[in-house]
Structure formats: structure tokens, C-alpha cells
Amino acid sequence: ERMEKLEEKLKRMINKVEEDDTATLTQLELIDDIQRLGLGHPFEEDIRKALDRISSLEGFNDSGLVGRSLHATAP
């Protein structure tokens, strides 16, 4: 039961919708950490949806970043 609660909490964190740059960076770091720990498989669909949402919020398209330089997006 505790594991299920932790999984649900992690899913909520992955799927958190905010248009704040700091929140987006935190969300990307969380996804990176999950994948580096080898825990990404159970959250694969949530991660894909979150990355799709982030890319649309941040102005990405299939050919790269639109209207912003990479230098401008660097932390």
C-alpha cells in the first residue's frame, strides 16, 4: 500500500502542470532522475505525456526550438 501511495505521488509530480520556467526545470530534473534510477518503465506513459506537454509549452516543434535561441534557454 505504501508503494502504491508513493507511485501515485510520483505520478502527480510528473503530471503537474505549471507554466513557470523553474517548475518546468524541476519537472525535467525529476523525469531525468527517475530514468537514471531505472524507475522509468512504470511511469513511461506519464513521462511521455509530460514531455509532450512541456515541449508544446516551451515552443518546441519537430525541427527544434522555435523563436528562442539555445543560449537564451540555458540556465
TrEMBL record:
SUPFAM superfamilies: Terpenoid cyclases/Protein prenyltransferases. InterPro entries: Terpene_synth_N, Terpene_synth_N_sf, Terpenoid_cyclase/PrenylTrfase. Transmembrane segments: none annotated. Residues 2-74 form the Terpene synthase N-terminal domain. Signal peptide: none annotated. GO terms for molecular function: terpene synthase activity. It holds the Pfam family Terpene_synth. This is Terpene synthase, N-terminal domain containing protein. It comes from Trema orientale.
